[in-house]
Design goal:
Number of strands: 11
Structural class: alpha/beta
CATH superfamily: DHBP synthase
Shape: globular
Distance between the termini: 47 Å
Order of helices and strands: EHEEHEHHEHEHEEHEEE
Strand order of the largest sheet: 7-4-6-5-10-11
Number of domains: 1
CATH topology: DHBP synthase
CATH architecture: Alpha-Beta Complex
Length: 204
């Protein structure tokens, strides 16, 4: 496993190495605007399966990161009303659940007709998906039910006995411990807050 230290801005070479791993079906650990996350190419079904195994995650779909509302429209159904909400809250630590398009693998959403999408405030997360050309998964780098990780050492400790491991680590030092992103469902007739988080949703 490689461990790359990222300061304020990772080098082009470091980022390209991480993206090449994603393109080849690998998995990386990266800093988000909340905690350390696990990323795979959100369109790679085999990589999605590896991520589920690593996290010991069952019956819970995976959210994704995109770099723009334009990209969000390519993977989900977004009405004019929805778009106004997205523009108000993105980028930021808030995930919106939207009706997915067929391009989104059912393996990612566990067969559900919706997908959770976020444009984070973290420039690194956005840059990774831009360079890949696909959405990436946005899920915390920890075993399901265990404490979220704010350092790479914590991530490594949790996964030390796993049969599947991330291929690459982007280390940004210790992150501020923030709760997971707010989750709001926009797939119904009116917005519904599914999880309270760092961003307070007040849209009527």
């Amino acid at each position: 496993m490689d461990r790359i230290t990222v300061t304020k801005k990772p080098t082009k070479k470091e980022l390209q190495e991480a993206v090449d791993i994603l393109k080849n079906g690998g998995m990386i650990v990266y800093p988000t605007d909340t905690v350390y996350g696990l990323a795979v190419d959100a369109f790679n079904i085999e990589a999605i399966g590896k991520l589920f195994v690593l996290k010991k995650r069952a019956q819970k779909p995976l959210p994704i990161i995109v770099d723009s509302i334009t990209k969000a429209k390519k993977v989900s159904e977004i009405s004019a009303k929805d778009e106004k909400i997205l523009k108000k809250y993105w980028p930021g630590a808030i995930t919106f659940v939207l009706e997915k398009k067929n391009i989104v693998p059912n393996a990612l959403t566990l067969g559900l007709p919706t997908v959770g999408i976020r444009i984070p405030a973290s420039p690194l997360s956005v840059l990774l998906t831009q360079m890949l050309g696909h959405p990436i998964t946005s899920t915390s780098a920890n075993i399901s039910g265990e404490k979220v990780c704010t350092t790479i050492d914590e991530v490594m400790r949790q996964f030390r006995v796993s049969s599947t491991l991330p291929n690459f680590f982007l280390d940004a030092g210790e992150l501020a411990e923030l709760p997971p992103s707010t989750v709001v469902d926009l797939s119904g007739s009116k917005p519904k807050v599914l999880r309270e988080g760092p961003v307070k949703f007040t849209h009527k």
